[in-house]
Design brief:
This protein is α/β, with parallel strands linked by helices and 347 residues long. The protein is 27% helix and 23% strand. It has 10 helices and 15 strands. The strands form 2 sheets. It has a 10-stranded mixed β-sheet. The chain has a 5-stranded mixed β-sheet with strand order 2-1-3-4-5, sandwiched between helices. It is elongated, with a radius of gyration of 22 Å. The model has no long low-confidence stretch (mean pLDDT 95).
């Protein structure tokens, strides 16, 4: 078996923690001796042990003597700084692994190259940037946040065959139950979910995870003049909620009101989200808000759910979206079209 095989296993392990490691990246680690996996694990949650430590701790007592003659594979460069946990690079050095194989170097300035230097200075053989593209894709949110100083932005909306998002400007079910589960899975995987004032007033959404088991994202509401009444569901205590407005800066329990400039709002929004350490945002609309992200090219992926059997004739028109589709999935007759913004990719 090859280095790529074991690193692919690292990525597979890391994906178990999607949506649970913020602000940390997802990382998987595999320990191999003579082509046999003797330990493997992943980073489960910020503040808890990192993947490398969990993998070391997973090794059976009788195999522990093999570590100095083993290779540890890790999807991201081992950390080199003291945070909530000690540096993983120092632990690898302490054990004296024969070799370290890394999926991709960490671009975060606290780590970038420093973990590798600790290891090479200890005369440990290091190979890096193996499965670089796949390892970058695993942590596309983390890398976008640190390299572009903004969250990873995912757009999502549902539309009828004739491209309406509602019927006669009133809420109307467009997608089926399977698509709804898919959307709630998406919510559980992202750091935050965003809507504008019109959607909050029009649909009174919870913006929580209900169709599957998962963690609620942070809710973000753009309501410049604070027109959404406090009794609406977006203000309930089921999730922390950030309200961008032009009136006040204030924290009240789980509610955080953040002032924003109306001029150059989208630029200021990205700056504020970065300052608030929001790594990814699922934008669920409505049409006006989605258009702001599209027109300013502030999006990385988009998912459009289409019901080819439904024609609504009148209502809110879906945004025009003239981009090349990446792929299309069929969910019991509903189509989910996936797009990747070619101008915003670092992969």
């Amino acid at each position: 078996m090859t280095d790529k095989f074991f690193l692919q296993r690292c990525i597979q392990l890391a994906e178990n923690a999607i949506g649970k490691t913020y602000p940390n990246p997802m990382v998987g680690a595999v320990i191999v001796h003579n082509n046999r996996i003797i330990g493997e694990a992943y980073h489960k949650k910020a503040g808890e042990a990192h993947a490398e430590i969990n993998a070391i701790n997973s090794v059976k007592a009788e195999d522990f003597v093999l570590l100095q003659d083993s290779t540890i594979y890790v999807s991201l460069e081992p950390c080199a700084h003291f945070g909530k946990t000690p540096p993983c690079a120092l632990k690898i050095k302490e054990i004296g692994f024969k070799k370290v194989v890394i999926g991709v170097i960490d671009s975060h300035d606290k780590v970038s190259g420093k973990g590798v230097k600790i290891l090479t200075d200890a005369d440990i053989d290091v190979d890096s940037d193996i499965l670089e593209k796949e390892s970058l894709a695993l942590n596309k949110r983390f890398f976008t946040f640190h390299q572009k100083k903004r969250p990873y932005i995912i757009l999502k909306w549902a539309e009828s065959q004739d491209a309406f998002m509602d019927k006669n400007h009133k809420p109307y079910p467009i997608s089926n139950s399977l698509c709804k589960q898919f959307v709630h899975k998406m919510r559980s995987e992202e750091h935050a979910i965003l809507v504008g004032k019109n959607t909050a007033l029009h649909d009174d959404p919870n913006l929580t995870v209900r169709e599957i088991e998962g963690q609620n994202p942070i809710r973000i509401l753009i309501d410049l003049n604070l027109e959404v009444p406090l009794g609406f569901k977006i203000y309930n205590n089921e999730a922390p909620t950030i309200i961008f407005n032009v009136i006040k800066d204030e924290k009240i329990n789980h509610l955080h009101f953040v002032k924003i400039e109306k001029e150059n709002m989208m630029t200021d929004l990205m700056t504020k989200l970065f300052e608030l350490d929001i790594q990814s945002v699922l934008v669920e609309g409505g049409s006006y808000t989605l258009k702001q992200f599209i027109h300013t090219n502030l999006w990385d992926e988009a998912f459009i759910i289409k019901n080819p059997e439904l024609n609504l004739a009148n209502g809110t028109k879906a945004p025009e979206f003239n981009f090349e589709m990446n792929n299309q999935m069929n969910f019991r007759g509903n189509l989910i079209q996936h797009y990747i913004n070619p101008e915003n990719q670092f992969l």
